Amino acid sequence: MSNYNFVERPRYTCALGGAIATVSALPQAVPILHAPPGCAGNFTWTQAGGCGLQVGGYCGGLSMPGSNIQEREVVFGGAERLEEEVRNTLAVMQGDIYVVLTSCVTEVIGDDVGSVVRPLQAQGIPILFAETGGFRGNSYQGYDLVLQSLFKNFVDKAAAKQPGLVNLWGITPFMDVFWRGNLTGLRRLLEKLGLTVNSFFTVDDSIAGIRNAGGAALNIVISDVFGIGAAQLAQEIHGTPFVSTTLPVGPSATSAFLSTVGAALNLDPGLVDNLIQAETKRYYNLLEPLIDCFNDMDLQRYAVIIGDTNYAAGITRFLADDLGWLPEVVGVTDILDEEQKNVITGFITNLASGIYPELVFHTDGSVIAGAVQEHWSKSQAQAGKYANPLSPAFVIGSSLDRELAKALGAGHLSVSFPVANRAVIDRGYTGYRGGLALIEDLISVIIAGR
Amino acid sequence: MSYFKLKEPPRREDRLQACIAHGAALGDLATRRLQCCLPNSERRFTQNSICLLLPALGTMNSIPNSVVLMHGGLGCGSSCHGGNAGVRSGNNHRWGVVKDGTWLSTGLTEADVISGGEPKLAEAIIAADRRYRPSVIFVVASCVPGIIGDDVDGVVEQVQPAVEAKLLPVHCEGFKTKIWATAYDAVYHAIGRTLLPEAGFIADKKSGKTVNLMNMSSMGRVDEVELERLLRELELAVNIFPVFSDPGAMQRMAAADLSISTCPTHDDYMLNHLQEKYQVPFIIRHMPIGIENTGKWLQDVAEFFGLGAKATAIIKQEEAELAAALAPLKPMFKGKKAFVSAGEFRALSTAILLAELGFEVVGVRAFHHDEFADIEYEKLLRITGTDYPLNIANCQPFEEANLLRKIQPDVFLGHMNGNSTAAKMGIATHVIYNTGLHYVGYRGAYELARRLYRQLKNPRFNGNISKYVKLPYQESWYRQDPFKYIETAGGDLE
Fold first, then answer.
1. Distance from A160 to chain B by nearest Cα, in Å?
2. Nearest 5°: phi and psi at A377?
3. Residue B77, SS3?
4. Is the CB of residue A92 less than 8 Å away from at least one CB of chain B?
5. How big is the A-B interface in CB pairs under 8 Å?
6. What does DSSP say about strands B42-43 and B486-488: parallel, antiparallel, or unpaired?
7. Which of A42, A198, A332, B475 has the fewest beta carbons under 10 Å from its own?
8. What pTM does this model have?
9. Closest of B223, B443, B464, B456 to residue B338, by C-alpha
10. Which of A59, A66, A54, A49 is nearest to A23 (CA)?
11. Is the pLDDT of residue A274 over 70?
12. What is the pLDDT of residues A208-221, one digit of tens each?
């Protein structure tokens, strides 16, 4: 994690940014920042430029309350100012839940936030806090820390597990630009198995549901990395087992996902299998009218995939195993430890199609772009007037990867943060329908000039 | 001693006694330099805003052949994702090439916070120089180095001999000032200390007809074109600084005959420096937003060069043409109530423009207050009356929501990131700052009118939203004094 001098155009923000994203996506939640004034504005502008035009929500952007720490508090301590801020927040702001989030500055100066929050909790006020100083890691860590705080301080202890109740997370609001659609896509499939799904952040979730999350029979984490800490903590505190899975895009991965969940919950295998069969059949029936043009227009592409762990793995599998494209290089831009890298490597080198892309772990997009050029050129022999460039190709990444796509003469689609050039409301790429949505988006890019 | 001899510029709270918290009727506050509004006056309840790092990045990311190296936590400067669209379009509008900005972060970790970030910064500067070969690297200090005591200037001094790029340390520790206009001083400070020549170096090369037109990232290319058009009618040569200006060309700032500010909130720090060190006089008075203001701005410049009569004729011609063009739009605006919220000078000059278009101005909010705006308050009082609220607020949408519920304007004009409160209340809105749109000069007045006409012709988007989307405030809050939480020199307003 520390083998870099700098991160180029980081494709995430800090722990506080991820925590703001997470809290502001909870139903009727009010984040309270214990921070200098600019952290909120920084995240707001980050959202405006990277999150598919999604900013704020019920209480996001510059409407979040904050203690606006200045030099005076740095010198004399900021707990008193925070106490005043929290008291007045409760008078002015309407929230079903309030979450105090700390920043680099207030953690370095050592303010005791717990001493401000705990007396209010004792009065029954729905307030909690998370220590999310920016130097604790990137936005995905901030997401995990907020979930941990929820399970530790907010979710009720259940006397017994409720069969058929599951929690679903692992998709970071806003930092996964397609979070709403991705969560909803999986939620609907799980509901078809007769499960009750608590997904925390969709418009169908509620604070009451989150309170009941301790009664879940299973926690389902849609990531090999994000939100695992919260899953381990929930297992420890609430005794709920968990499964983790890479972002399931399209029929192969989604079928495997449903089987995993079914096995973990001891569901009737026939029930799970029926759903898989029916959904897979439906997927291919819907795809059928595309077959003529897909084949006639030679729409197979070499693919370069660049993204966070979830997207790099999920999109690669879909393109290789379902769509029959040729992933050549996969760049993972997260800051990962060796164990996490091994998990991703294992996944991407075990594709059913036998496709074996080159895998690059690097935080800097321009290093990955260089690796793409090198990867292809070193394997190609020059033969007079005949050349075999990496073409036709397609770059699936973030809006920062437009330059690479341009250099390759390739199509380009932004799916992983930052997504500056698309507007996203509830589109998602998970599940069977998500695979179809991705095909629509990819091919629409290729044929836009028709 | 010149401020430019210091490692970092002073806070505007100290240098200009700027303040950010007050509220009362316009007539009670304006032109009295808001003496009751102390530099450190505060609120007992605050929402968040931005810090000086954000506007500073807006300028730094625009500079060609530059790299912006953020020294701080991983998230500081992720706002560049928002600014990048402006960098891409700004490059495209000027040179026909779409290009992303290049920004980096040292991404300080917990271990760095404990053991210090200086070694990492030194390595990052060298690595960035090798990889990108930029002509300048802005080395930006955010909060964390400011707290753990990293000596950014010391690192820069030590590493400079080992790199090709010119290194410009820029201090943007967000906890040190609430007046984010200090950002402009921070960037000018770095440019002044590093990219300008020795005193007297090129003073003899003056043409007698060259002006520095200062644009500190609040105007897009379309607005620059409008001002260039007017200045060229006076046969002046125009250099635009500092946005999108090549670092090698920055020294030409010292060789101009006059510097002209386009926003008095932005430029005084640099203009004083250019005058003191290179004897370049300056004008910092009107903002060329609004019909009368544009004329005054142009007239001032013309008179400096002895071209007053020529300017008078140009203005007369421009105003006549504009009036004819506005005539069909004005009936839509007549008697409609407008509320304006933005940076101080921009809010005031836009309010004046709205009055010129026939709106009734019913509320003004300004991000901060300092002495430069007194002239603008005088105009506003003369044109619009005195008994509507003036709110000095670095955003604080809760005060805005309270005011809007009470005032019920027909249209709200807010700064970028400042329109959603009004929108969720169902009020027609328009953005007051967006570098893709025209705002400045006669063209700006017309284009703004055209856009407002559109907004008012069908305000249903916000109207529909307001029926189903709720603001995050207690109902009881709307019954309170909107300025309840402001503490001032005279005690609470409550």
1. 35
2. -65, -35
3. coil
4. yes
5. 256
6. antiparallel
7. B475
8. 0.96
9. B456
10. A59
11. yes
12. 999 999 999 999 99
Which residue type is seen at A53? L
- What's the one-letter identity of residue A223? S
Contacts of B96 (CB under 8 A, 6+ apart): none
DSSP for A176-232? Answer: BTTHHHHHHHHHHHHHHTT-EEE-SSSTT--HHHHHGGGGEEEEEES-SSTTHHHHH
Task: For each of the domains in chain A, give its residue range(s) and CATH number, in order of start.
Answer: 15-139 (3.40.50.1980), 162-284 (3.40.50.1980), 299-419 (3.40.50.1980)
Task: Provide the β-strand partners of residue A97.
Answer: A29
**Per-residue pLDDT reduced to its tens digit, B27-73:** 887 766 665 566 567 899 999 999 999 999 999 999 999 999 999 99
Quote the minimal CA–CA distance from B326 to chain A in Å. 33
Q: Which helix (H) or strand (E) holds A130?
A: strand A127-130
- Mutation target among A5, A86, A136, A367 for the B interface, most CBs of B within 10 A: A5
Q: B46 touching A, CB under 8 A? A: yes
In contact, A344 and A315? CB cutoff 8 Å: no
How many other CB atoms are found less than 10 A from the CB of residue A192? Answer: 14
| Residue A192 near residue A166 (C-beta atoms within 8 A) | no
Q: Do A6 and B69 touch (CB under 8 A)?
A: yes
- C-alpha distances in angstroms, A238 versus A21, A199, A213, A227? 25, 17, 9, 16
Residues of B in contact with A49 (CB under 8 A): 79-85
Q: What is the pLDDT of residues B331-383, one digit of tens each?
A: 999 999 999 999 999 999 999 999 999 999 999 999 998 888 989 999 999 99
Domains and CATH numbers, chain B: 53-176 (3.40.50.1980), 203-318 (3.40.50.1980), 331-487 (3.40.50.1980)
Mean of per-residue pLDDT scores for chain A: 96
Q: Assess: ipTM above 0.90.
A: yes
User: How far apart are alpha carbons B61 and A385 in whole angstroms?
Assistant: 42
d(CA B309, CA B183) in angstroms, rounded, equals: 38
